[in-house]
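queue> pop job 88
queue> type: inverse folding (structure -> sequence)
queue> payload:
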């Protein structure tokens, strides 16, 4: 099996000249061969260099030894009774992929060595083995495994870096989202300062709308657009004079036209703000009616964004059940009758159905809760409708 002559043949000299080898520190090698003499001779010759060797006379013995004592490399004969070298290779690759594995085969079975390399062996040696070639092959295989481990270590480190950067990005996004929420809160506060009689209107309408959106099975993105649009929906009223905004009686025809412009004014104010771009359309269409009788553009049915159709019912509910400069709040039962009567004319029937599918006590409960809220609610921060128990 092994030639103890360490004088390289011309072919071996050419091979080693093409692939110069850097000596590695002491490596632990397991030699597996069913011929005891071959095992002992190879172990002796490798031990004279920089290898610490153990031997096994079968694949099964090799596996038992590996369970107790890790090895850096294995040199294994392919043709063994019982567990073959190929079978041992498959098992070692499954258990310890980091171990360098060299196979030995006869001159008449080189194809088996090539097949072994395709199956995961690091190199193949042709019998009779030449000590210098075995040593050179071992060093190359060990160097290859070290490089693979370094690459794997770099990959894991890179994954850790990516995970850390992802956390940092998530934290930064949360800060950005919080700044958006603070902006919405400031806009709502500005509207309330102008019209103290309707304080909390935007919060209540937002929550009413989200409950209906949830009942209709709308997506999280649609929930967020509704929330972002509902909170500043009346921002255009900041441009109205007090004589119109706070007038205790009915508006004249001219005043009504001026009042209606608040929807366009609000749209113009927020359409250039990137995080409110989707919500801007709700602000512009929040007074459209299902039958086309609304303003500003007389849109009908599906022409009106779903968020605005939901908003219409929510806005009506709060307008009827809240104090206004021209009248006191009316009972929720009055609002229920209006929504039921006008379903299919002013309001989308699907939205009305979702509204009435929820328990009636849902709506006064929300109203009471929002009257107690002084800052942007947590369900808006998360972009969802939340539960009635949230603040």
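queue> result:
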């Amino acid at each position: 099996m092994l030639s103890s002559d360490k004088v390289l043949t011309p072919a071996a000299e050419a091979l080693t000249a093409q692939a110069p080898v850097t000596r590695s520190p002491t490596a632990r090698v397991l030699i597996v061969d069913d011929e005891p003499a071959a095992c002992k001779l190879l172990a002796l010759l490798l031990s004279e260099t920089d290898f610490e060797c153990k031997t096994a006379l079968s694949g099964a013995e090799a596996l038992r030894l590996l369970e107790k004592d890790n090895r850096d490399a294995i040199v294994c004969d392919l043709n063994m009774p019982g567990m073959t070298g190929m079978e041992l290779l498959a098992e070692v690759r499954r258990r310890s992929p980091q171990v360098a594995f060299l196979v030995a085969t006869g001159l008449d079975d080189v194809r088996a060595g090539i097949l072994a390399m395709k199956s995961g062996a690091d190199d193949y040696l042709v019998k009779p083995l030449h000590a210098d070639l075995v040593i050179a092959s071992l060093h190359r295989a060990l160097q290859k495994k070290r490089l693979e481990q370094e690459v794997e270590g770099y990959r894991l480190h890179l994954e850790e870096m990516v995970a850390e950067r992802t956390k940092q990005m998530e934290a930064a996004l949360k800060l950005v989202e919080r700044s958006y929420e603070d902006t919405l809160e400031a806009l709502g506060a500005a509207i309330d300062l102008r019209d103290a009689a309707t304080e909390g209107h935007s919060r209540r309408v937002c929550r009413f709308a989200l409950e209906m959106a949830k009942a209709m099975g709308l997506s999280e993105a649609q929930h967020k657009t509704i929330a972002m649009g509902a909170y500043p929906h009346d921002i255009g009223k900041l441009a109205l004079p007090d004589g119109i905004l706070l007038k205790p009686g009915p508006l004249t025809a001219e005043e009504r036209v001026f009042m209606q412009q608040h929807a366009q004014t609000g749209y113009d104010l927020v359409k250039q703000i990137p995080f409110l771009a989707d919500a801007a359309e709700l602000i512009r269409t929040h007074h459209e009616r299902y039958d086309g009788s609304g303003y500003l553009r007389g849109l009908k049915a599906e022409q009106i964004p779903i968020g605005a159709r939901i908003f219409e019912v929510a806005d009506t509910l709060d307008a009827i059940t809240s104090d206004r400069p021209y009248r006191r709040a009316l009972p929720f039962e009055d609002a229920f009758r209006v929504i039921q009567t006008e379903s299919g004319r002013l309001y989308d029937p699907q939205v009305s159905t979702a509204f009435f599918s929820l328990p009636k006590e849902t709506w006064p409960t929300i109203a009471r809760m929002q009257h107690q809220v002084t800052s942007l609610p947590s369900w808006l921060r998360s972009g969802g409708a939340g539960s009635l128990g949230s603040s």
